[in-house]
Write a structure and sequence with these properties.
By secondary structure, this protein is α/β, with parallel strands linked by helices. It is about 25% helix and about 25% strand. It is built from 15 helices and 28 strands. It has an eight-stranded parallel barrel with strand order 5-6-11-14-15-18-19-20. A hairpin with a 2-residue loop joins strand 2 and strand 3. Helix 2 runs parallel beside helix 4, helix 8 packs parallel to helix 9 and helix 12 runs parallel beside helix 14. The protein starts with a strand and ends with a strand.
Amino acid sequence: MKKLLVVLFSIPLFIGCKKVKKEQEITQVVVEEAPKKEVPFVWKGANIYFLLTDRFNNGNPNNDINFDRTEETAVLRGFEGGDIQGITKKIEEGYFTDLGINAIWFTPIVEQIHGGTDEGTGKTYGYHGYWTKDWTAIDPNFGTKNDLSKLVKTAHSKGIRVIMDVVLNHTGPVTDKDPVWPDDWVRTGPTCEFTTYENTTECTLVANLPDILTESDEPVELPDALLAKWKDEGRLSKELDELQLFFERTGYPRAPRYYIIKWLTDYINEFGVDGFRVDTVKHVNENAWADLHKEADYTFEMWKKKHENSVLDDNPFYMVGEVYNYGISSGRDFDFGDKKVDFFDYGFKSLINFELKYDADNDYESIFKKYSKLLHTKLQDKSVLNYLTSHDDGAPYDKDRTKPFRTANVLLLTPGASQIYYGDETARSLTIEGAEGDATLRSFMNWQDLDSLPETKKIHEHWQKLGQFRANHPAIGAGKHKRLAKSPYVFSRTYEKGDYRDKVVVGLDLPKGKKSLWVKGFFGDGTILYDTYSDTEVTVANGKVILENDFDIALLELVE
């Protein structure tokens, strides 16, 4: 923080006619500037980093092989070594903070099936985390519970929230090492057709992906294979006692979804994770999501009461859902063809928005105006999570990575929460020779490029500047948008909640050299602003500010 050094010289004093002489004194007083207002964390404008646990950073090479998962796989379809410790190391190094990240979402870390299977794209292991064998255990390829505890604590110490990816829809595939769950737990057919509500929810996503009977309220016994596993691991009585207490407290029937809800919320109870990204939302009866949210919210509040010194703020538990192909223009409803469901009514604060990639090449004002309007009308008090690339979207925006700067501008300046997919900020290749299907989207993080290629460093720096500005200003993601000038393009964002007010101005597609940005009616003459992109302080005069640099972007904030 800047400090002002005030030097006071005492001078001879004259009182009436009498001269009073004093020794000359030099007094130094350090006056600190008033601290900046603390920036509140707002989920509606969060800057979320999404990574595949196995593909981001290998923090512990000693856990790379477990359960004899040693058979040769198709390209990028086996475990590559990334783990929880690797994520924590990057948090400690400040990688996420420098990128302006205030929440991290990583793929599921629960124990995966031990065998591999071929879904038509070659032999595959559960490196991605979506093939659960045991919801109550962390897969040793990803790490341990101690590793997860350290990750959450480290993230929280940096003001970063932790979002766990959770699966309630299905178990992992059946293999020679992984028996199918009992018939009263799962269905093994038919496969989904996606034309009606029923043939989207009461079906298997693909062949050999047993579907949990999430709509059922019929009590079931635990699978023998799971009981035997717990017994071998010496935790059978502990798990059974905890289940007994859960069902006694809640009064729920011992139906499949309630067992899994208990197991998922245990991660909140034990580690204090801040949110869930919920997988395959539209394939599950929506009432199950209301149940999950109720128990997650309850557990989070109980955790905060037990850990008062570790609570970051008063935000409730966060749930964002993956309703595949939901778009923001749909408002609150998702249309199954024969039925519409408002998933926001079943515990979701936000849904992943599959629409931005189609909007991304429109002019900036069209994008920003559309999103701001929808988020403050149809989706008032709710939000969307915008993305341009992801782990399972085979037609991402800019797949060849020819427009990394525009990608950043669109993703990080569009109203709503943003999802940076690992490697967006380093132009990690999405086209890997020999990889089939979604595997091509899931290569290991390109740390070497970031360390050695000047162009990659330049791209990364752009993402950092935008990300930090976004993190420091909730107005960008959660505020209201207004165009101030058409050419050069200048817009404002304003966010207000209680006593907190945030105002910023952004200019895009600016000319090189000397440029004038119109801010009249938003910032008055004499207002001192700071352009965080060029590291320049400017003063508003005649309704505008003048900048002179070779950048085509300006990120203006008030000088406190």
